[in-house]
Design brief:
With about 280 residues, this protein is an alpha/beta fold. It folds into two domains: about 5-85 and about 205-275, HAD superfamily/HAD-like (Rossmann fold), CATH 3.40.50.1000; about 95-200, HAD superfamily/HAD-like (Rossmann fold), CATH 3.40.50.1000. The protein has helices at about 35-45, 60-70, 85-95, 115-120, 145-160, 185-190, 205-215, 230-240, 255-265, and strands at about 5, 20, 50-55, 80-85, 105-110, 125, 135, 165, 170-175, 180, 195-200, 220-225, 240-245, 270-275. Helix 5 packs across helix 6. The longest helix has 13 residues, at about 145-160. It is globular and about 55 Å long.
Length: about 280
């Protein structure tokens, strides 16, 4: 398929009813907004387009909305904020995976905690891996911990065949100090140790299906915008939606040749490439 370079969304916005926008790498770099984000969101809303923020985050959409508002994007500029954490909670409530009340859950996160997830399901947060009956991989402290640190923590859980749920499949994440390994990489380490992982989030179908139900939109009327070929672009293709890759975020320093190599590696190409979230 042909990849079309565009300077912004103004020329193609009329083709879609809904825009599924990634958060990290599209709206901001982990600490500040990218230029033109507020302007672009404002113009999409003025054009009558639905805006759904679709983020691989173990935290809820409500939690992320508060954090996003603090750096300059009010909730009035979008319609829905849906995370992989929201999707995991919905699937658990639908009994799509085992998370019975009273289950002792060992949580790996970015340090912000996930009491909402545990409270909603009646899970018991467990600080001792030896007592854990479920492993939740929702975030990463890749900026301060090493992969070896995580392997040491995870090995006893894998030996006991404790099932894991990964609610943030991102292998890389943006931090204030640059790019670090994400929760998805930690889940891969757990698999390498012999552990079983249920993956929830982009690029896996359940998150897109959940978002489409919440947004009441068909895939062919959606444009998915993201900075990850592995997650955003592949997920959009599996969902049946068009996609646009931004040159900000985790791939902001790569060359056109390196980007083409990633298309081959993941077997997918975006419909559009643009410099950032620009109108």
């Amino acid at each position: 398929m042909t990849v079309t370079d565009i300077s912004g969304l103004a020329g193609i916005a009329h083709r879609y009813d809904s825009f599924f926008l990634d958060q990290y790498g599209v709206l901001h770099n982990g600490k500040v907004l990218y230029p033109s984000v507020v302007e672009t969101l404002t113009k999409l809303k003025a054009a009558g387009r639905q805006i759904v923020l679709l983020s691989n985050s173990g935290q809820s959409g409500a939690f992320n909305a508060r954090r996003l508002a603090a750096i300059g994007v009010p909730e009035t500029l979008y319609d829905l904020f849906i995370t992989s954490g929201d999707t995991a909670l919905a699937l658990a409530q639908e009994k799509r995976f085992a998370a019975a009340p009273g289950t002792h859950c060992f949580i790996i996160d970015s340090g912000s905690g996930h009491p909402g997830f545990c409270d909603a399901l009646g899970l018991l947060p467990e600080a001792d891996p030896a007592r854990a009956e479920l492993l939740l991989i929702a975030g990463s402290r890749g900026g301060t911990m090493t992969e070896a640190d995580y392997a040491a923590i995870l090995a006893p859980l894998a030996e006991r065949a404790v099932n894991a749920v990964c609610t943030n499949p991102d292998k890389h994440m943006l931090t204030a100090g640059g790019t670090a390994f994400g929760a998805g990489r930690i889940a891969e380490i757990y698999q390498d140790l012999g552990g079983k992982v249920l993956w929830i989030g982009k690029p896996y179908p359940a998150m897109y299906d959940y978002a489409a139900r919440r947004a009441d939109v068909r895939p062919d009327r959606v444009l998915c915008v993201g900075d990850s070929i592995e997650h955003d672009i592949a997920g959009a293709r599996n969902f049946g939606a068009d996609s646009a890759l931004v040159r900000t975020g985790i791939l902001d320093t790569i060359t056109d040749g390196e980007r083409a190599g990633l298309y081959e590696r993941y077997g997918v190409r975006p419909d559009f490439v643009l410099p950032g979230l620009i109108w």
